[in-house]
Design brief:
4 helices, alpha+beta, single chain, 44% helix, 20% strand
Length: 127
């Protein structure tokens, strides 16, 4: 890898106490490599430490209507395991309500009674 070779050469020269001189082309290439490395490892900026994006940063527990639409967000957790515990606790506390645990568009878990449309779909999909 060219970047590793260049880094080793610069390090060896600097350790021996000699100056490191780069051509403009090599300096531009090195700057691009550094920029790419930094942008890959940089976390997205937040407005403050308490800002949370409920959709993209963890598991959200949604309370659903009879038709399966989202009624409200009841819980949120960074970890899927903690989200699952919240889902189970909400399901026990409100057995007549329907809840869904999602991470972005992926459904991680469900609990509660099914809506009429889902009951019919489930019945017709059974072998």
């Amino acid at each position: 890898d060219e970047a590793a070779e260049l880094a080793d050469a610069i390090k060896a020269r600097a350790e021996s106490g000699r100056n490191v001189v780069l051509s403009p082309l090599t300096a531009l290439w090195l700057a691009a490599q550094l920029h790419n490395s930094i942008s890959r490892h940089r976390a997205p900026k937040r407005k403050s430490k308490t800002d949370v994006d409920l959709y993209s940063e963890g598991s959200s527990i949604y309370r659903l209507t009879e038709t399966g639409d989202i009624e409200q967000v009841d819980a949120w957790a960074r970890s899927a395991m903690v989200g699952r515990a919240a889902l189970v606790a909400l399901g026990r506390q409100y057995p007549d309500k329907r809840f869904e645990q999602r991470r972005r568009a992926w459904v991680e878990g469900e609990c509660g009674p099914r809506g009429e449309a889902e009951r019919l779909a489930h019945r017709f999909n059974e072998p």
